[in-house]
TrEMBL record:
Residues involved in [4Fe-4S] cluster binding: 247, 254, 257, 263
Catalytically driven reaction(s): 2'-deoxyribonucleotide-(2'-deoxyribose 5'-phosphate)-2'-deoxyribonucleotide-DNA = a 3'-end 2'-deoxyribonucleotide-(2,3-dehydro-2,3-deoxyribose 5'-phosphate)-DNA + a 5'-end 5'-phospho-2'-deoxyribonucleoside-DNA + H(+)
Biased segments, Low complexity type: 1-53, 301-312
Protein name: Endonuclease III
Cofactor(s) needed: [4Fe-4S] cluster
A molecular function GO annotation: endonuclease activity
Gene label: nth
Keyword Nucleotidyltransferase included in the entry's annotation: no
UniProt xrefs under InterPro entries: DNA_glycosylase, Endonuclease-III-like_CS2, Endonuclease3_FeS-loop_motif, Endouclease-III_FeS-bd_BS, HhH-GPD_domain, HhH_base_excis_C, HhH_motif, Nth
Keyword Glycoprotein: no
EC primary class: lyase
Amino acid sequence: MAAVKKTATAKKAVATKKAAATKKAAATKKAAAANKAAPAEKAAPAKRAAARPAKPESRTALVRRARRINRELAEVYPYAHPELDFENPFQLLVATVLSAQTTDLRVNQTTPALFAKYPTPEDLAAANPEEVEEILRPCGFFRAKTRSVIGLSKALTEQFGGEVPGRLEDLVKLPGVGRKTAFVVLGNAFGRPGITVDTHFQRLVRRWKWTEQTDPDKIEAEIGALFPKSDWTDLSHHVIWHGRRICHARRPACGACPIAPLCPAYGEGETDPEKAKKLLKYEKGGFPGQRLKPPQAYLDAGGKAAPPLGAG
Ligand code: SF4
């Protein structure tokens, strides 16, 4: 009886060993196939990422890599622009405040009615809050946002003669306006360099090991030090565009990412090129963008305008 039991145990051990060997062989075959399928440049970062912790990147190498990523992104998104529709600094300021906790698309679908009815800070300052709430309802948090934009408009009217100020120190004094909003307005409505540290920017610069910081102000300072000031606004667009289209929070499309060879986080997302391609968004995935009125360069590059509210 003992001998039978021993034989059974031995047989089981052999079977387990065989199964493990088969599994290992299949995994190796799969990895080899993936490497074969991926372009050589896509396979490289994994090797480099593995090597990187052993030898910390020097400051000079970091600056070079960061600037190279920005240059490559400039080629990928030559038409990058702020994704909020606006025609003047007031509209951009209000749209940026409204964009909290919602998409730029939803803001762009909402603001045409708002600015048609209240074209100036004076008009919005004197508005009936209930009527503004009705217009802003699609943006979510519409009561709080109504209070914000009316308060903001009152401050512009009372303290700045109805004009949006073009200085950071004045902008951040306005109710509901922090450094992020101020830099969006300065960079895009006044042509003054600014870094926009939004959620995409924070995620990507940490994936790229440009910074370990988590506080937006510290991120802004550290990233600002890697680039000349004149690059700041375009850099912000490139990073945010990449975050929205390819390097998503949950499933980055690593296998379709043009800067994979420079990225220490390559492999955090989908590496299979075909599967990764399906994760691409907006014009990279063949879909409309966020602006109802995008710049001509975007349309010339094959980008499509977003549909108005209720149309899609
Ligand atoms: S998609 Fe992947 S490879 Fe590209 S930047 Fe993001 S984490 Fe890096």
